[in-house]
Amino acid sequence: MNAPATATMLQGLPAEHRQRLMRFAREVSFPQDTRLFEEGGRADRFWIIRTGSVDLDMRVPGRRAAVIETLRPNELIGWSWLFAPHAWRLGAEATSPVRAYEFDAPTIRSMCQDDPALGASVAQWVGGVLAHRLRSARTRLLDLYAPYGSGSLL
To answer: Locate the Cyclic nucleotide-binding domain: which residues (predicted)?
Structure first.
């Protein structure tokens, strides 16, 4: 595995925790236009992008799914695996060929339960990603559907 890329993609974790997680990484690839998951589906894995890009999208009643954010190398795909009920809150589609590290969510959740320090590090890392994604979703939906976009209010 590529150590410098690994350090960057999981920079929010202490080195010891990052190394433990990476022992469970499996290399996978997805062709362009592959749906990785659908909103509401079972969140039983997650990925870190090595190469390529993935769009996160959200269903919008009566409209085409809205692209919320485009993820690129070293970014986490999926956070729903960590929080009950472990169902995807968004959808995801490869917009180019993608190579990624895949992790089995039940295995990682079990590790986190057995090691509270690891669990706290993973929760903090994924929580930071989640906070960023929520801000992105809000901004994108305002850009798409608000009368005046997401510009600042006086």
So the answer is: 9-111
